[in-house]
Write a structure and sequence with these properties.
This protein is mainly beta and about 230 residues long. It contains two helices and 16 strands. The protein has a seven-stranded antiparallel beta sheet with strand order 2-13-8-16-6-5-3. Strands 4-7-14-10-12 form a five-stranded antiparallel beta sheet, with no helix packed on it. Strands 1-11 form a two-stranded antiparallel sheet.
Length: about 230
Amino acid sequence: MDDRPAVSTDAVWRLPVTVCRITQFLGEPTAGALLERAIACADDTLKPSMIRDREVDPDYRRSRSRGDFAAPELMAAIGEVLEAVEHTLGVSCHNTEPDCSLNVHNDGDFYRSHQDSDMRFAPRRLLTFVYYLHRTPRPFDGGELRMFDAALPLHTGTAGRWQERTWRDWEPEHDSIVFFLPTAWHEVRPVSCPSKRHADSRFAINGWLCSPDPANRGSLSSVGRTAP
C-alpha cells in the first residue's frame, strides 16, 4: 500500500523561460554608428507598429517601426554567436533567413503580452532576437522586456491563468541583445520619456531567424550556419 500523500490538485508547475543575453555585443564605435543611423530615420519613414504584421491596435501595441532598416553588422555578429545560442535554446537555425525591423518606443509606448509565433501569420519563425540601442545616459525609464514563465496546472493540459505566471524583466541596455524562442510569452513595459524627443527614444532592432519560404527561396540572405 502506498502511503505517500497525493499531490494537491491546485499544484502549479512553473517553468522558467530561457533567455540568452549578451552585453557590449557590437562594441563602440559600431553600436554608436548604428544608433546614429536609427536616430536619422525620418518620421515619415516610421509607421505605427502593427500586430500580426497587418493590424494597428494602439490599445495593444504603441510604437513606430521601419521594416527596411538594414543592419548588416548586426546580422554578421549574430552569425558569430549563433551556434552557442542554438545549443542553449535547443533550436537549429541552419540555413535560416533573417526578418527584422527597427522599432522605436517613446513616451507612453508599450507592447502588451504576446508570442512571436503564430501558425497563421508567422509559422516559419524559429528564433527571436532583440538588439537595444539608446543614448547614454539613458534618457527614458521603463521599456523593460518582460519574459513570462510558463505556469502549468499539474493535473491539466491547459496553459494556466495569467495571474499564476511569474516573470523576469530584462533591461533594454544599450548595445545588448537577447535571444529567445518565439513561443515565449513576453511584453514591452511602458516607456516614460520626459523629453518626448525622437533621439531620446528606446530603439530596438527586432527580428527573427525563419525557416526558408519555398515561394521566395533565395530572396533573403542566410544568417544561420550553412549545413555541410
